[in-house]
Specification:
By secondary structure, the protein is of the alpha+beta class. It has 19 helices and 26 strands. It has an eight-stranded mixed β-sheet with strand order 5-4-3-6-2-1-7-8, with helices on one face. A six-stranded mixed β-sheet has the order 12-11-13-10-9-16, with helices on both faces.
Length: 617
């Protein structure tokens, strides 16, 4: 028998809402601390007992709540942060939905005390739900204290899904860490079972920000991070990006904030992966702490009750801004320079977003060696040889050609011929070649060790990319047009981006609602799986409004050619050749990593060498 429609009881409605907002004790801490920040608190103390199931207490020195507003504060859809529909388009606070406190009250024994003037506070207490909670005066400093006891005491099914006490506290610790990373002007204290676990003091100066960053993300990240500041007409990006050499085995040190709110966004994650795509080793993940500022009217934060997801009005512009800003910041760091200087400033031009990506759909998955050599020689008319045998071959370093001498003894030492000082050359000057694999050089800091193959590989790779970018991508007409079956959404997407793809060498037209007829492809794609590539490109465009899959595949081919063309082990270099390679490294973008993400050089300071030999003790 069908049931009649009826309005849910307030307690049941709030518990249903709590199922979305309050997943575990860490969710309670997040909501309460964000409320404290919205109230202007500069000091927040969080007390936890039994991993948050026994007690969660949040105290702040914010502006406090009016006595008359205390009952409203725990009512559903009651908030001081928005008043009208138009306010949803200009949300500048962390909270705004008016659901959190009511949801928390419905699944706990709840107490709220607050004061607008020192010593003149009021308190309300609620168990489960109470439409008319009692108020009582209470001496209280300016600010608010909220206590949440016996979380999920009236929903035993929810309580069964909680993990061990340590696990739940670890989630709380991580939540406070994420909030502290974006709120440098606020101090935080975290106590567990009456013992202080964390204390993050409020900071104002940049040097103190680095200290808090080190306390939250580790000193290793601070030492291997590059400060960044980028701006366009409407967007601003700041924070720290880890150097490619500080990559991670998993994505556990990635924090990105939009207008102070931490988010999990596929668009932003994809843009950052694209920025690092040819400087990371294999399946490594970048590390970053970034703050994106967007006009509130240009971003929708009212997507999910947890407020972790956002939508951008100009998603393509945001994607390009993030990708180019981070990529250019990484490329701006000259090989051998210290990254712990003033933030790298990037000025973003909107033409990045408006101009079609000429490589967006140019790709190759596999080429025969002879085809690679042919294209390589076409690009390099200086007849740079590709070593495919053990026979010594000429190599190109700097602007000079040198014939490679036969294999030599393990170490060859010489005095570098130079008139410049070490300060003129960050990587210094060559003094020896070790086992015909490594270049040993002396700079102002001490000893530099260079993997000559990895370094030369990056130099050639960047040169190839520049030369290919300067050429127009030719199209090849297919003798027999190819019909490609796709989903309707994919066909529509490719049609919408046809102008961009045509400038990349493509020629196609829709054939029905779920297929395309491809008549022209970029010349480099003759040996590729066109169907699979179009599906991948369409998938990228649907997700991020832009695809760099083709560009990445072309770069992969160029990387292979550079690897084969670079000087290999067992090749003897003269001192001038070694110095020429060092100078080329200093001028090359991403010169610190080879095409596969491995480091090309390392520094041993004089102090580190002295320590190895116990000098000065």
């Amino acid at each position: 028998m069908s049931q009649r429609i009826q309005i849910l009881q307030p307690l049941l409605a709030n518990q249903i809402a709590a199922g979305e907002v309050i997943e575990r004790p860490a969710s309670v801490v997040k909501e309460l601390v964000e409320n404290s920040l919205d109230a202007g608190a500069t000091e927040i103390e969080v007390d936890i007992e039994q991993g948050g199931t026994g007690l969660i207490r949040v105290r702040d020195n914010g502006s406090g709540i009016h006595r008359e507003d205390l009952p409203l504060a725990v009512s559903r859809h009651a908030t001081s942060k928005i008043q009208a529909v138009v306010d949803l388009e200009n949300i500048a606070t962390l909270g705004f939905r008016g659901e959190a406190l009511a949801s928390i009250c419905s699944v706990s024994r709840f107490s709220l005390a607050s004061a607008r003037e020192n010593g003149q506070g009021w308190r309300i207490q609620i168990e489960g739900i109470d439409e008319n909670p009692d108020q009582a005066p209470l001496p209280h400093p300016v600010g608010t204290t909220i206590e949440v006891r016996d979380l999920f005491f009236n929903t035993p099914a929810r309580r069964k899904f909680l993990r061990a006490e340590k696990t739940e506290f670890d989630h709380i610790d991580e939540v406070l860490k994420r909030i502290a990373l974006s709120s440098f002007s606020t101090g935080f204290t975290l106590n567990h079972n009456k013992r202080q676990v964390r204390q993050y003091r409020r900071v104002e100066q940049d040097k103190d920000r680095r200290a808090r960053l080190g306390a939250l993300c580790g000193t290793a990240f601070v030492e291997q991070a590059l400060a960044i500041e980028a701006a366009s007409a409407t967007l601003k990006l700041s924070g720290w990006i880890g150097l490619p050499t500080f990559s991670r085995s998993q994505a556990d040190l990635q924090y990105i904030y939009v207008n102070g709110r931490i988010v999990r966004d596929k668009l932003l994650s994809h843009a950052l992966r694209a920025a690092y795509h040819d400087v990371l080793y294999h399946d490594r993940h970048p590390a970053y702490v970034l703050f994106l500022e967007v006009p509130p009217s240009e971003v929708d934060v009212n997507v999910h009750p947890t407020k972790h997801e956002v939508r951008f009005r100009e998603s393509r512009l945001v994607y390009d801004f993030i990708r180019h800003s981070v990529h250019d910041a990484l490329a701006s760091l000259k090989t051998g320079e210290d990254q712990k200087m003033a933030p790298t400033k990037i000025v973003f031009d909107k033409k990045y977003a408006d101009a079609p990506s000429t490589k967006a759909a140019t790709a190759v998955s596999s080429f025969a060696i002879q085809e690679q050599v042919s294209l390589y020689k076409k690009l390099h008319e200086d007849r740079l040889a590709i070593a495919t045998t053990e026979t010594p071959a000429p190599i190109q370093l700097g602007t000079e050609w040198k014939e490679v001498a036969p294999p030599s003894p393990p170490v060859a030492a010489a005095t570098p011929e130079k008139t410049e000082t070490h300060s003129d050359a960050p990587l210094g000057y060559a003094i020896a070649q070790f086992r015909d694999i490594y270049i040993l050089a002396e700079n102002a800091e001490g000893l530099v060790i260079v993997d000559m193959h990895a370094a030369h590989e990056r130099v050639l790779y960047e040169r190839l990319k520049q030369e290919l970018a300067a050429q127009k991508i030719p199209s090849q007409t297919l003798f027999v047009p190819l019909t490609v079956k796709l989903r309707e959404a994919e066909v529509d997407c490719l049609e919408n981006h046809r102008a961009t793809l045509e400038q990349s060498g493509w020629g196609f037209a829709a054939s029905g609602r779920d297929s395309l007829i491809v008549r022209e492809v970029p010349q480099l794609l003759a040996q590729t799986d066109i169907r699979q590539l179009l599906q991948d490109v369409a998938s990228d465009l649907l997700t991020t409004a832009k695809s760099h899959r083709g560009e990445e595949l072309v770069n992969k081919m160029l990387a292979t050619m550079a690897c084969r063309g670079a000087v290999h082990a067992k090749r003897r270099l003269s001192i001038p050749e070694m110095n020429a390679l060092l100078r080329d490294m200093e001028k090359t973008r991403h010169g610190g990593q080879c095409n596969h993400g491995r480091p090309t050089w390392m520094q041993l300071s004089l102090q580190e060498l002295d320590k190895l030999f116990l000098r000065g003790r």
